[in-house]
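Entry:
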Amino acid sequence: MKIGMFTSGYQRNPMEDIFKDAKRFGYDYIELWGGRPHAFAPDLKAGGIRQIKELIDKYEIPVIGYTPEHNAYPYNYMIGTEAMRRESIEYLKLSMDMAKEMGANFTLISCGHAGYNATTQEIWDRLILSLRELTEHAEKIQHKLVVEALTPYESNVCKSANDLAEIFRLIPSEFLVGMCDIVPPYVQQESIMAYFDKLGEKMYHMHVIDNDGASDTHIMPGEGQMPLKEMMEELKEINYQGTMTIELVTSYINEPRFYARRAINNIKDLLK
């Protein structure tokens, strides 16, 4: 399986550090966080995409996934007025365009909080409307759209393998697929491996990290409470050949290179 670096923890560093460190530490690819100052989609459209392409070529490290910043800052297609929803959808379409231009295989999105007054019916009507529009764009440009389930600390919309399976039942498309960030199932006492059983060929990608079992905190792999060694054994047992991004976010923002190095070394040790 391929191991990738997630880049939001580098947002206080020059963007070139991301590519330099991914190469130095032995990552196979980059999953690029799409927020300022590095890779905000409108900035890329205004000319910033050129730097991304240059860094990909210079360090020979591909960006295979693009994860635009959304879900409240300021974009969240699950809450607010129809004008706000439309603006969020257009932003994500632009994000897919930029991901395609930089050579990424997929754009990764999740479903933000819909607010405390939204009913289940209202949530699902808005979710499916929005994902249909995004999927149509993905089909148009021939680019994968990956949907991630979140923890209940983050969202009241898509939080489980069952939620993802229902999305794929309602919107059948080869360009709409899913993934497993292993923290949401762990904190909800849901089976991580059930994602593979329930999603089948739609199980396209993973975010791997550790966790304390009581929050959405992303902890250095091997230094939390999760049975990661045993999970790695199971992934080898089922011959998982997909991508696995180590999703260090901002807990280690003060020294991202120290922790990016430690994270991949820990994962490689767990895979032995």
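The CA atoms of residues 29 and 61 lie 6 Å apart.
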